[in-house]
Amino acid sequence: MARVDVVMPQMGESITEGTVSKWLKKLGDDVKRDEPLFEISTDKVDAEIPAPAAGVLAEIKVREGQTVPVQTVVGVLETDRSSAGLSSGAPPAQPAPPSVPTSAPAVERAPAEVRPAAVRTPPPPPAPAPSPTHPPSSSTDDVGERLRTRSTPLVRKIAAEHQVDIAAIPGTGIGGRVTKEDILGFIESRAAQAPAPAPVAPASVPSAPRAAGGVEHPVVEAWPGDRVEPFSRIRKITADHMVMSRRVSAHVTSFFEVDFTKIAGLRKQHKAAYAERGASLTYLPFIAKACAEQLRRHPVVNAAVSGDSVIYRQEINIGIAVALEWGLIVPVVRRADELALAGLARAITDLGERARTKKLSPDEIQRGTFTITNPGVFGSFAGAAIINQPQVAILDIGAIEKRPKVISLPDGTDTVAIRTMGMVSMSYDHRVVDGADADRFLADVKALLQDFPESAM
């Protein structure tokens, strides 16, 4: 007989906590080793967590929707089924995950219920006396250092975006640390209270953000019959990130029409061979290959802004936006310029499949230097995407389809022919990327796509 603890894993160096978004097994269910046991959601990625051993799910310590620090015991597996039956009935309140809806926001209830449990889990902590639910009154010199130890970089980033003083927020994390749930709860409560004093013009107030420069989503009245569904964690992060990006970067978008006729022929010729090698030969690998080669020639497009400086990235890491049922995620192909077309196709296929099955690690969605998004697969003609911070450019691919096109013949006459055409557009940060820089980059990408070398296949 053995009991095996199931812990909240650390999904990356900067990850300090995770949310149990869904239990895939119920109490008493048989579990195989490495079988998906529960789903978690972190600041970086959603993922399925496999069982550390075979056995029976005997105890659920952390319910769906609750957020706990990494290494917290969230459940217990029992290798002896008879013993599992006894232990699963021990905690009277635990086997009730249905009482907390999956869609319920973890912001309000998770800290109050989970954080004390997290403190009891490790050995007796060394004097948690300075649990500063209020900022200590000491010298000004060490306040900044104390606040840094009480919050993660993500929390400080959110605080800066919303113009919030972290010292004013009671921290529920270990040692009084201000967690992401703490600051989001504070921001939401502030937003909920803001419209109350001004009922004079309720129709016009929600139409615009209330705080200049803050990432605050307007509060709108729900009408009878409406369905109100709180943001999922990934939707909330995406929403804040997009608003922040629009505010930070000076967005400009250029559009180029590309003739993909030659690539269409290459795809038809090599598609089956690539499929045998585990790669889906769509138009996307060709476009990623062209961008990777041209980013080396146009370093300003492969850059980032840091204060009053520009960082020209040495690595060329291309993020590929993947649309999921529950949101959007951007896995990254590392060192894309060093991969052949087949390698790029395999990497894009693999990352897309694992993004949809929640098998990505946090490292696989970080350190991107340029992003490609492909709404054209849904029929979009063209678009102006929002830059994925802290990058300075994002390429948008429109629908690639057969269209009538005027072409010039060798004898100088013109004719109308059926060609495979598509629009590509690039939104770029005009703080560092001038229009001429962006258009030269797009012109070179277009030229390579229209005359893609067969030797690269």
- Output the helix-strand order: EEEEEEEEHHHHHHEHHEEEEEEHEEEEH
Oligomer: single chain
Let me know the average pLDDT: 80
Compute the number of strand runs: 19
The helix count comes to 10
CATH fold description of the largest domain: Chloramphenicol Acetyltransferase
| β-sheet strand percentage | 15-25%
Q: Give Rg in angstroms.
A: 26 Å
Task: Please give the alpha-carbon distance between the first and last residues.
Answer: 57 Å
Any idea what the shape is? globular
CATH class of the largest domain: Alpha Beta
Helix content range: 25-40%
Largest sheet: 7 strands, mixed
Low-confidence stretches: 83-149, 196-214
Briefly note the structural class of the backbone: alpha+beta
CATH architecture of the largest domain: 2-Layer Sandwich
Superfamily (CATH H level) name of the largest domain: Chloramphenicol acetyltransferase-like domain
How many individual domains?
3
Strands, helices and their partners?
Layout: E1 3-7, E2 17-23, E3 30-31, E4 36-41, E5 46-50, E6 55-60, E7 67-69, E8 73-78, H1 81-88, H2 106-120, H3 143-149, H4 153-162, H5 180-193, H6 233-248, E9 251-259, H7 261-276, H8 283-297, E10 303-306, E11 309-312, E12 318-320, E13 322-324, E14 327-329, E15 332-333, H9 341-356, E16 370-373, E17 393-397, E18 401-408, E19 414-429, H10 435-450
Parallel strand pairs: 12-16, 16-17
Antiparallel strand pairs: 1-8, 2-4, 2-7, 3-6, 4-5, 6-8, 9-19, 10-11, 12-15, 13-14, 17-19, 18-19
Helix pairs in contact: 2-5, 4-5, 8-9, 8-10
